[in-house]
């Protein structure tokens, strides 16, 4: 299927910038947006697909899509949909197994508010233009409330714990952003909750885990410093040596010699 940009969709009532109605026939064409979007079906269900995952949104649902996610919709002729562009990523709206798109169940108070916005978009254009930004702020507040989140705090803690273990697995080279997305967090939120929980940044935690593992390899094997550096993804051995020395006070080769001297003396 060909890619199209959101601006080139065939028909839509673009009333108030970030809040508009769309009555186009969603025909399965893949497209990408440069903002996060909440798409709310108003009078007909719609099917969606992104990243090989498909689903169906009924009138009590909405589809939340992160910016840059390739996605497509299919809907019947005559369907009406409220589209809300959002400049923030609300990680609580993503289910635990979602990376960039999630089907969410709108809490009753949120559903009522989105239908109010749809009514204003259709019948009170000038009024909506005047209240568009406050309305987006209010909706953002609603979406951030516990009753509108797709996952509980307990499940978020479980996801964070799983991500922590994956990130510190020295046999993988998953980036912080990739790990965050895989477990339903935005990178920014992941860094924030990670620091709140563990007292250091994800990057610092990864570095500490690699240094600890490197110490074990230096103590227990005869692997060269270069091979150990490569095993942790450091193509430049000098960079690994600098980081190791900064954290331990010794270059890797010196550290190995000192440890083995201590073992020989104790023997």
Automatic annotation (TrEMBL):
Database matches in Pfam families: HTH_18
Domain HTH araC/xylS-type as annotated: residue spans: 158-258
Protein name: HTH araC/xylS-type domain-containing protein
Highest rank taxon of the organism: Bacteria
Molecular function terms, GO-annotated: DNA-binding transcription factor activity; sequence-specific DNA binding
Keyword Transcription appears in the UniProt entry: yes
Keyword tags: DNA-binding, Transcription, Transcription regulation
PANTHER family according to UniProt: ARAC SUBFAMILY (PTHR46796:SF6), HTH-TYPE TRANSCRIPTIONAL ACTIVATOR RHAS-RELATED (PTHR46796)
Presence of keyword DNA-binding: yes
